[in-house]
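Q: I'm writing up a methods section and want to include an example of the input and output format. Could you take the sequence below and give the corresponding predicted structure tokens, formatted cleanly so I can copy it straight into the document?
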Amino acid sequence: MAQSEGKRWGELNNSEWVQVNLEKKRRKKRGQPDEPVSEIFNLPLPPDFEAEINKKFPACEKLLCMRKILTESDVSKKQARLNMLCHELETFRFLNDEETGDLRQGKGTEVPVMHKSITRGVKESPMSFFQRDVRKDSHPPERVSSSYVFTKGWNSLVSEDGLKKGDVIQCWAFRDGEKLVGMALVKEDRSVNLASSHHHAW
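A: Here is the clean output for your methods example:
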């Protein structure tokens, strides 16, 4: 029996909360064709990102957190946020237990985010990063929708990087020892026609 069974959302410890999201990911992928592990975890950082990150954080661990197809709401100036569903993440290792707990408790943070401006190349911009939970007070944990969200600075990044609906981006995180020191949002050299296809985050 799962340790989280019968508990309310607020009663889960961080490890149980992660397991709930991993199980949601497994359920969602049932019936979908498996993609090779190398498709996800052997993706390298582009050389220009690698150079900038190694210059700033020479000893950091680089973790690919998610690949995401941008939706209309992701690039809407009115929405002004990038929403990443927690059960679509590839790993939770980019946060330690304390960082995970702070985000679950509503303590947002500001992180330096590397991205590629059309005119200035790879640059760093500060962005707000927090967790949002939907239905946490009225549903069991497996039906709560949790997301990690970038807000402050997101509209400027969309404009600077020329992002649009259907673009595929990678979200990376960089750890130096026990500390999350930065993140990166990398646009892939392709896009997806969301109007004619049914796609999901990898």
